[in-house]
Amino acid sequence: MKHIIVSNNNPTKEELIRLIGLKTLFARQLPKMPRDYIVRLVFDRRHTSLCLLEDNGKKNGDEDIIGGICYRAYPDMKFAEIAFCAVSGNHQVKGYGTKLMNLVKGYVATQGIEYFITYADNYAIGYFKKQGFSKSIAMPKTRYQGLIKDYDGGTPMECYIHPNLDYTRIPEMIAAQRDFILEQVRKKSKSHVRYPPLQNSAADMNATSVHGHVVSSRNSEAAARAMAIPGVMEAGWTMADLQLATGAQKDADRQRNHLKSELLAIIRKTEEQQFAWPFREPVDTQEVPDYLTVIKNPIDLSTIEKQIRKGDHYTTKSMLLADLMLMVNNCKTYNDPSSPYYEAAVSLQEFVQPLFPPAT
Fold it and tell me: How crowded is residue 24: how many other Cβ atoms within 10 Å of its Cβ?
């Protein structure tokens, strides 16, 4: 496997063949993207492409293309916009997408690029998050405003390119860090110690006192039986720890985790909708300085998701519905009924309400 950078400034015959191969790959893997738009950008002189090639012995541009990224750099502003990123269907889920992104990061870092920015559709957000992209744009807006266009249904994402990081060695660095941490854990861990099997019968295990702990309830009895297992006490467990892991506390934790999973599923499903684009991140008060004057309780999907993940903010589904409706009403209050923001709020309300049956 090898990679090459293909520039559109006076390309050779071999480079043209690879650009055609990239164009075909992007059209096949991104079926919703207009083909004439793909052709225009791939062959645009201001765009650069990186090809990941299968080293199959072929030459002169006939190598099989595993994947590719097409981007446009803005050297004066020190950022680049990714236009297309795709991996061939028969090479996916093999780590090529990560390798492709690391290679292009390593290359643009040598060109003085500090940020990558892209508009990701709902299916690509997860991939870009794994590659270090974030929905929070840290780059000053003055650097990219007017240079890139907004895409309906796309989520803007950004990645900082560290100038001193060798992105091609990231897998090696992570493996070395993992080995170091495991080595430190082994120095303190007793997981390698083997204890003799239990000698007591079931009747003995039901005794009213184990290791000096008096059993006074069913939860305490279960905890005491666990404490009787050789190695449990040596591992640092106490009766209080084990009691928390059993009985009512365990049931409460299970219910809380189930609610958390349900609420996160609702938020993810909502974020995936095309009309959710105005609600994914907090309103930028630098763009609309009077927003907080009109809206006293701002809320957005990313804030709601953070509150859900904390685990103790929402105790019922109706509390989540209340925040979602607050978000809808805020949008309706601030925006004109003829605006696309107001229309998105109406669509969101119609989508959300059926997700919460009256019984909740």
Answer: 14
Is pTM beyond 0.85? Reply is no
The DSSP secondary structure of 64-109, one letter per residue, reads: PEEEEEEEEEETTTTEEEEEEEEE-GGG-SSSHHHHHHHHHHHHHH
Q: Which residues have a Cβ under 8 Å from the Cβ of 103 and sit 6 or more positions away?
A: 3, 50, 52, 167, 168
DSSP 8-state secondary structure symbol assigned to residue 156: E
CA distances from 120 to 82, 152, 275 (A): 10, 11, 15
Q: Which of 227, 208, 228, 204 is nearest to 218 (CA)?
A: 208
The bridge status of strand 65-74 relative to strand 79-87 is antiparallel
User: For residue 145, what are its two tokens?
Assistant: 């405003």
Per annotation, catalytic residue among 15, 63, 81, 271: 81
One-letter identity of residue 219: N
The reply to whether 81 belongs to the active site is yes
pLDDT tens-place string over residues 136-164: 898 888 888 889 887 777 889 999 999 99
The answer to whether 246 and 223 have CB atoms below 8 angstroms apart is yes
Which of 347, 276, 355 lies closest to 317 in space, CA to CA?
A: 355
Nearest-10 Cα torsion for 98, 100, 104, 109: 30
- Taking the C-alpha atoms of residue 356 and residue 313, their distance in angstroms, rounded to an integer, is 18
Q: For the chain, which residues score pLDDT lower than 50?
A: 201-208, 210, 213, 215, 360
Of 40, 48, 38, 51, the closest CA to residue 11 belongs to 48
Going by C-beta distance under 8 Å and a sequence separation of 6 or more, which residues neighbour residue 132?
A: 159, 160
Let me know: does 278 contact 360? Beta carbons within 8 Å: no
